[in-house]
Amino acid sequence: MFIPNYTKGLAPDCWLAHMDRLLTEGVDQDEKKSIVENMIKLVDLYYAALDGHKVDVDRHLRVKAYPHFMEKKGFESYHSSSILGRIYDETEEIIAQQCDEQIQITTLPCFSEVEATPECTSLWEHRYQEYLTKSRGLFDLGKEEKNDEFQKLYQHYKHLLYDADELEETSRDLSDVFMEACAIYRIVYERAWCTRSVSS
C-alpha cells in the first residue's frame, strides 16, 4: 500500500516558519541557536525524503503556527513582524492601491462616427455574451492550447463580421461592416468602462 511522505512538504514549511522567527527582533541568542539547529535538522530530513527515505518530522521540529505571509489556509497563523512579514505587507498594500485606482478608459472618436441599428446592436450583444461564455471555458487550459483556442475563437467572430477570413476578402458592403464594427466597439467599451478592466 502506498503511504504518502508528507515530509517533503512539511519540512520546508517548518523551516521557513523557523526562519521567520530567527529574523524577528527580540529573539535571544539561546533561542536563535536552537532555531538554527532545528533548521539544519529540517534540511537533512527534507533531502532524506527527496532520496525516497521514509522519514518523519519530529514534533519538536514542527511549528504550532505559521507566519501570515505563508498563507497556510486551515492552519493556525500569526502576523509576522520580521523582514519577511513586512515585505509581504508592503507588497500587498501596493497591490491593493493599484487595484483601487480606477483605470482610465477612453473611447476612440472614429468608432463613434456611425450609429448602429437596434437590430445590429442586439445581434452583437448576443454574440459578445456568447464569446464571453466560450472564452471563460478556456482559462483552465495549458498556455499553448489556450492560445490556440483563443485564436480560433477570434477567427470565428472575425469571420462572422467579414463573412470572410480577412477584410480584404469580404463581399459585404464596407459601410455595413464598419457599422457593425462600431457596434462591437461600443459594446466592449461599455463593459470595460463599467468593470474598469480593459481585459473584459
Automatic annotation (TrEMBL):
Residues 130-197 form the RDRP C-terminal head domain. Its EC number is 2.7.7.48. It comes from the Eukaryota. Keywords: Nucleotidyltransferase, RNA-binding, RNA-directed RNA polymerase, RNA-mediated gene silencing, Transferase. One of its GO terms (molecular function) is RNA binding. The keyword Transcription does not apply. GO terms for biological process: regulatory ncRNA-mediated gene silencing. Pfam families: RdRP, RdRP_head. It catalyses: RNA(n) + a ribonucleoside 5'-triphosphate = RNA(n+1) + diphosphate. InterPro entries: RDRP, RDRP_C_head, RDRP_core. The keyword Transferase applies. Residues 4-90 form the RDRP core domain. Probably involved in the RNA silencing pathway and required for the generation of small interfering RNAs (siRNAs). This is RNA-dependent RNA polymerase.
